[in-house]
Amino acid sequence: MDGKPTLVEKRVDGEPSNEPHWQNFADCIRSGLDSVARVDVLHSTSRLCHMGTCSYVAGGEKLGWDSASQRFTGGNEDAVAKANAWAYREYKNGWGLKAPYWRG
């Protein structure tokens, strides 16, 4: 082994399982080592999926994206407002983006 983290595939009922990723994440928290999945890549992937959902919620309109402000832009003001409202909607059940992240 070259010191880089690896995953061993696990299947549940013949289907791929996420358990190795969860275990790798927990192991990296404990050890301080890098995970097999880089956070910057995961952020970009998650953001792209979230942007698609926001566009769908906004009626499937074509939207622009301002990466500096992390906000939607575009020609249809109603669609842009709906997409931004969905992207930045209020968190539920005590969760939030400001510390403390959970108020239970």
The share of residues in helices is: 40-55%
Structural class, by secondary structure, is mainly alpha
The major beta sheet can be summarized as:
2 strands, antiparallel
List low-pLDDT spans.
none
Number of helices: 3
How many beta-strand elements? 4
Strand content: 5-15%
Q: Distance between the terminal alpha carbons, to the nearest Å?
A: 42 Å
Write a concise synopsis of the structure shown.
The protein has helices at residues 19-31, 39-57, 77-87, and strands spanning 11-12, 15-16, 64-66, 71-73. By secondary structure, it is mainly alpha-helical. A hairpin with a 4-residue loop joins strand 3 and strand 4 (71-73).
Task: Give a quick set of tags describing it.
single chain, 104 residues, mainly alpha, 2 domains, two-stranded antiparallel sheet, 3 helices, 4 strands, elongated
Structure commentary:
This protein is mainly α. It has two domains: 37 residues, no CATH class; 49 residues, no CATH class. Helices cover 41% and strands 10% of the residues. The chain has three helices and four strands. Strands 1-2 form a two-stranded antiparallel ribbon. Strands 3-4 form a two-stranded antiparallel ribbon. A hairpin with a 2-residue loop joins strand 1 and strand 2. Helix 2 crosses helix 3. The longest helix has 19 residues. It starts with 10 loop residues before the first strand and ends in a 17-residue tail after the last helix. The model has no long low-confidence stretch (mean pLDDT 84).
